[in-house]
Sequence to fold (170 residues):
Amino acid sequence: MTVPNQSEPMLELLQQAVQQFGRMADGYQRIADELHRANAIRLQSLFLAQLTRAMDDPVLAETLSGWPDLTEDKRRQLLNANAQYGLILLTHRVGIIDRSELLGHLKVLRGNAIFAEYWQRTAWAREHLPPESFEARVGRAVDAVMDERLDDLEEWWVVGPDSDSESPRH
Fold:
């Protein structure tokens, strides 16, 4: 005579609950990822608005550029180069352009003398970035493009722990 095991239905219920919690956690993670993405877009919008104001007002431009030796027009040009670069990075980060499109935009920027000057003047800032950060990896790609070391471009795309959240379509 066998006694029915009453723990089996409880185990099934427990397994179902664990699976449900897993699905809920996945849903919450997707929401958190979307919120992070929306916040990145909003933050970049605020940054670009600040750059725009600085380009329109020489007094404000001095607070953003750190280049005291420039004319107003040159400072505005370099701030605009910064804004253009930031927009390209944002379009990649939020998945509007993929890796190859990002590289194409970077190659186009390479031909612009104002961007080349901006890039040279901001080299010191990139030296302080964490090496595996998105900005540092892209910076190495731009360095390769600027130096025409196009064969080195593959090396910049080092997949890091946060590469999926930063480049959803690579």
Summary: Residues 54 and 63 are 8 Å apart (CA to CA).
